[in-house]
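Students often ask why we bother predicting the structure of a whole assembly rather than each chain alone. The short answer is interfaces. A chain on its own may look different once its partners are present, and contacts between molecules only exist in the joint model. In this exercise we take two input lines together and write out one structure for the complete complex. Read the inputs first and try to guess which parts will touch.
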Amino acid sequence: MRSACGQARRRQRRFFSSVTADASLHSGLSLAEASRKVQEGDVRPSELAEACIKQMERSSWLNCFVTRCFDSARLEAEAADARQANGTLTGPLDGIPYAAKDNFCTLGVQTTASSAALAGFTPPYDSTPTGRLRQVGSILMGKTNMDEFGMGSGTLFSEYGRTLNPWSPESPGDEKNTEAPFLVPGGSSGGSAAAVSSGCSFAALGSDTGGSVRQPAAFCGVVGLKPTYGLIPRHGLIAYASSLDTPGVLARSILDAAMVLDVVAGPDSRDSTCIPAGKGRAGGGGFASDLLGAAAAGSSSSWPLEGVTVGIPKEFNVEELDAGVREAWENTARTAAALGAAVVEVFMPSVPQALAAYAVLASAEASSNLSRYDGLRYGARTGQTAASRGEGAAVGGGGIFRDQGELHAEITRTRTAYFGDEVKRRILTGCFVLCESAYHDYYELAIEEGTIGHR
Amino acid sequence: MKRAAERIIGPKGGAWDVFIGLEVHAQIRLRSKLFSRSQAAAPSEHDEPNSRVSLFDASFPGTLPVLNASAVDQAVKAALALGSTVHRRSVFERKHYFYSDLPHGYQITQQRHPIATGGSLPLIFDPAGPTKPKAGGAAKARSADELQGGSNDPGFHVPAIGITRIQLEVDSGKSLHDRKGEGAERSLVDLNRAGTALMEIVFEPEIRSAAEAGAALRSLQLFLRRVGACDGNMEDGSMRCDLNVSVRPAGTEGLGERVEVKNMNSVRHLMTAAAAEAVRQARQLEMGEGPIERETRGFDVSKGETIHLRRKEGSVDYRFFPEPDLPPLVVTHEHVEALRATLPELPEATMARLSAEYGLAEHLSRLIVCAAGGASDYYEDLVNGTGRERGHAAGEGSGPYRRDPKVAANWLSNNLFGLLKDQLGSGDSDEGGLERRLPAERLGGLLDLLSEGTISSQTAKTVLREMVLEDHSSTAMEIVEAKDLRQITDQAEIESLCRGIVQDPRHAKQLASYRSGKANLSKFFMGQAFKATRGRVDGKVVETSVMKLLQQPEPPAANP
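Now the answer. The structure tokens for the assembled complex follow.
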């Protein structure tokens, strides 16, 4: 495995040295290394935070962030410095800078899910994952860009513009060179993937409904962990498709991802769809130590992966796969075999139907979950905007709806104005498949497929 | 009670059968809401708007529903009380529509798999009216052996209305369109009620008259209050009701097209609307104004008529689908049985027991069970003495009772309920309301004075009025002493008093009339005697005495 990843590692290192030429290399450390340095007093959390801030400023051309939290990050870092000084660090993630996808609600920090509908929305509460990271002292550097409400796979459909892949071949660092053949970072957690890949943060939270952590991680050359549904609580994650939405982790190594997972995983009384305590690995914690334990046990053996079976799903080897990707895939399989693993081809016959089932279920739930954005309680509303422009809208911030028609007209104006095209497409699809006349042929069929393919 | 299907007569003289179904929304009695920890709105209290709203209630992004286990318990208890089948697995679904007081854009409800189905509601309330005594007299008191044998047959038949389903769902908020003031018109939203737990109870269309619909709703209030699942007050909205009505030519088979009438906010309105809608349908059919079409109507209270709201074909597609934020609700058999064990005695059983144990006529036990303010407990305290265990005292003749059960029942039905009628309207749900207004021991003390002969029954009524309306602390004896109301029991004293009245020159005219054959005038003299003694005499003693005097000196010619 080491040799398979070697090439990518070398490229990444070259990239970091190019963009952090005169900065300290702190932001290029792995999370595990940074953590060890903090624990041992070799580096202060505020040094890590400053390194990330510097990197975020240098990388602003990537457009990884919707909101940057430099002020609060510095305050949090100072507090962590104090804990480091008096020996009261809470654990391995104390004082470690991280980023969160902009669909995780963050107390006092604007959270938009990259939608104009939520411009200016500042949650009065923390999501469970960001709350748990706050609890252990991790430093929130900013909120990362994404496809609006998670709907997309290129971080292209954002109210705040597209995010670029740090691995774009042309002139990284040149803000004026916008014509260069930039690469997409994948999506919808493209901002998180690009932020971790470019050294803006040591790890980032993402969310995966239909590949939104795994795919951008692959595109940006970082580790993307999409855990089992229900392992990381969804409380505070702005819903796209509730039965599929899975908070995940983007990091620079598997160990880094496991260290974050240790903190954010585990049941939450505010999310009824969590894996209950005592079932499987629901208790959270222990992922990183298990990993280290296994690595230690394997290091003395010349067949460290002996006893491990690696399945290669036949259905994933599609014709359209890029030759270079196929080659890397095959190399990795060979490496695993060389380290003692049994590599076998496996069949997942429901995979061809999975995409169709996903499209139906996700859009159905999206159409429902996004019903709340009517502009009446939070977020943007056309009536207010028109009134503030002095255009005398029929219904301003304090108008009257004389009948249901007027109310519906205002809700329609707001939703038309503030949802992006991709979101509208999925809402319409979702409304259609849930209609009485279509429910049986689409939704119920998808559920049947889903129970085979999903989970 | 005999259940008579009422037939209505159309304008051209045709007879029509009426079928009514009810859909009742009952707010579950709970401290917090169905899916959030915010305090449930108390309908009777006027809270600051939007003061009981959690982030979830206001549909803040990222918030998730967490089911309130007590709400499930309450619904299960109500379902068990109504004999419904509680399902091990039920499913919450989302029902979508846009409205300003529906923050999520959908209501969380149960559609395809409700928590309970089946069962029936016994019509404890008599559609003919709550106080009307039935011909046929007392139910037979049964022996203790019979009771302990487990037989629960009340000896009379209580008809029941079938229940289709019981489902759990959330309430919406309230929209307010404030049109006061020029240019200051505003639409306002209060989310205090949003997310409050409701049970929707859907009845089979088996109700056969408007009066029966009223009795059904009152009976439901009684059951839900008894198990503590709902306050059942329509006035403050903790219970609301829609109805559906259909008619068919009398004696034919099948059901006519049904029409829904929405948002009844009192039992009286429900009955008026049901009757008005049945008559409207009969008229339309008889006058050849076309068939009845499925539609939704409202009720115009001022005109007493139902009014068209919308056609059913134009109704919205609610796009139901299973709520993905909640796993299916599982209620285990063991849990259901544990809740069943906590159920109190249900109204039907109480009614049967009062008749069997205390020998009360059906109409009296019905009256006591249906009365507000915890009347059946109050009655048993009165009969057995407060603090004594209620029930199971039968079988030893009249010995174990501290007070005569029939006298006690009659005093409640003839005197106390009437005096407290305004204070304890039928909508009053406060258990123990009677005890609070007049402790059973105070009333008991009064009945004791009566049965000992210390006071006359006339005096007892005066003292009761005093105790209920004026003096809320003195015992009956203290009032009697203070006002000198002891009964005059000395035979000679009464006779002398009566003689004075009969021989009073001012009454010479009446005496002459009496003697010339106006026998009714004996009552005049008795009345004078009561007046002179302020009722402190036993009626029978006075009657004997007066009659003796009237007949003594000059025996009347005609009267026996």
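Check your guess against this: Chain B touches chain A through 35 residues (CB under 8 Å).
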